[in-house]
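*** Query protein ***
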Amino acid sequence: MRSALLVALGVGIGFAAAHQFNKTPQGAQFFEDVRTRAQEFGDAVVDGYKAREAELKASATEAARA
C-alpha cells in the first residue's frame, strides 16, 4: 500500500513539475518537439501497418486464385 502511495505522489509531483516547466518558452518548445516526434512515430507505425496489411491481402488473394 505504501508503494502505491509513493508512486501516486511521484506521478503528482512529476505532473506539477511538467506543468511549471511548460509555462517557460523553452519548456513549451520542448513539449511541442516531443509531441511532434510522437505524432511522426505514430504516423510511421500506422503507415507500416497499412502497408503490411495490403501485402497480406494481396498474398491471400493470390493464394486463393491458385
